[in-house]
Amino acid sequence: MINYTKVLITGASGFIGKRLARCFLLNGYHVVGIGTSPSHPFSREFKEFEWVSSDTTIEGAWQNHIPGSDIIINLAGRNIFRYWTKKYKKAIYDSRILTTRHIVNAIEKGKTQKLLTTSAVGIYGDCQEALLTEERALGNDFLAKVCRDWEKEGIKAREKKVKVAVMRFGVVLGHGGALSLMTPAFKLFVGGPLGNGQHWFPWIHIADLEKAVEFIVENQPLEGIFNFTGPGLVRQKEFARALGRTLNRPAFMPAPSFMIKAIMGELGSSLLHSQRAVPKNLIDSGYPFLFLDVDSALKECAN
Hints:
- This protein is 38% helix and 17% strand.
- The chain is of the alpha/beta class.
- The N and C termini lie far apart (38 Å).
């Protein structure tokens, strides 16, 4: 069994990156975090944490940390929850594809390393009622194309004999992240489903995401593509009702589809896509989910 000791995380100052960095630090790893923030609070809290402030879309000295890392977790990418101008769409694309390309280019062939690189279930596009396992054909909209190119760059690391795990994230539920954008409307008694709410809503609790990453790292031979989604399938209107129950607020104020598209443009259209994604490969690999349904996941987030 290989003894991993050093983890490098791009995007380590984000919602997910901080959770994973803390997890590995508490488990005795040395963690190198990379991101554009000038500093990171963990630099004061943990002696085994090293922060590198750098723009990973540009080649530079930050790449020198890659050959010495046992595990590379690639989370870098601009937030998609902003209005998509032509310029911002380029930033969304470049922050993912260029970062991943620079990581893979800096990997030295022959070293025993593992790369966990991010993608999203948006890669499938709008699939209506279809059940989405990791073998599903890919979509053709903007986010699907971003994810396709993102994964393609990461999988190139296999040419250097690196084991690669691709993590296709659903909406991550936790203290912060997407929930911080959803809950204000509910707290003001104006929450509800998006559009008619019939589209499937892929979700995963941050604790399951964290534990699933650990699971893949600790199971050294494990690689491939994994839907990082909870096993409890739910439509968006059912998710809205569950969130309302958790916050003790009603969920009867739908946001009409035409309004979502008018206000948010192309992003709004993507929020109405239906992705009935199941974590088949995680389940088949033996990962034991902590949260099997969205109610229990949201209840924990509210505590």
